[in-house]
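ugh ok fine here u go
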Amino acid sequence: MADAAELKKRAKSSIDSRRAELIELSLKIHANPEVAFEEEKSAGFIADYLEANGFSVQRGVCDLPTAFSASYGSGDPSVAIVCEYDALPGIGHGCGHNVIGTASSAAGVAVRALMDEVGGTLKVIGTPAEEAAGGKVYMVDRGAFEGLDCAMMVHPGNRDTAVAYALACLELDIEFEGKAAHAAARPDAGINALDAMIAAFANIGLLRQQLRDSARVHGIITAGGDAVNVIPSHTAAKLLIRTDDDEYMDDELKPKVLACFQGAAESTGCKLNYKWGEESRYRTMRTNLALADAYRRNIEDLGRTVVNPESQRSMGSTDMGNVSHVTPSIHPAIAIAPPDVPIHTEAFREFAVSDTGHAGLFDSAKALAMTAIDVFLDGDLRSEMKREFDEVPD
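structure:
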């Protein structure tokens, strides 16, 4: 059997030898920020790089033009390393997805060179639209993650962690329809859709006291009327609701949130129209602890100190959660910025192309490669990953 320590050493050396080209790739993605499902350049940069380094690449998989699947080898075990590369509207790569896409590609290329010795199938899967709409949600439903022993990625952050907690997330689109009237001369002839929206948001504020600590309800009014002297006849809003329990989402949170808008419609006489974004619903993250422990050992071998999350309440959402419900998965974080610099900000965007950003890129690429090698070579690890996955109810 191939020696894991020797293969890991070679994988790390391979990644270091590509330093200039990997930084160039990261900078290109960062300089060309593209939002959800519009990542033509970014997906192309990464797919071209993988193809040039020996992968067979399928572009536009799962009927998503900016998704791809790169593969090498055949048979079992089968390991997927996941790429993200979309940017935030108005901010660009304030979440550091240029680091993710490049690091996952680097890990894939390093492990590909060893596949003839370890055996099995290696995939690098390109997933668009993590920041909005959830490309992985569609890709899971369309079979992109079937038949895998595991899937893994590393996300830039402000702490080094091995275990990720993430909330289920569901979008809600709201419209109120009222009746326009002159706001001074005949306000009594109108039905005020803005009153309905304001009342609904007030209801949401009161509801929060009665929700679980992990639940989140937040939104914006996207249409609030067109003229100050006209009773608004139409208003619209977009909300996200989140929780750490998929069943609680359906059984309690959804009905309670919807009741806030139904009550506002009833009290104002407006018509309520709403739509749940079930087709792009993010599920909770089910971190596979056996796989996360293997990652922790590897990232700590690189000199980093993994910390436990200070609070499970400090969570966002990721469509990697959906992947974690169909195959053992991890979504650890790697620090590229100080603890006081939050992601999704302009400040974090600049760290994504800084020296610390590059350091995070190389360390995460090496840790992913090392962890993939563990999965390929260690049958006991694969058995423990599967046992754990099978025992956790979906």
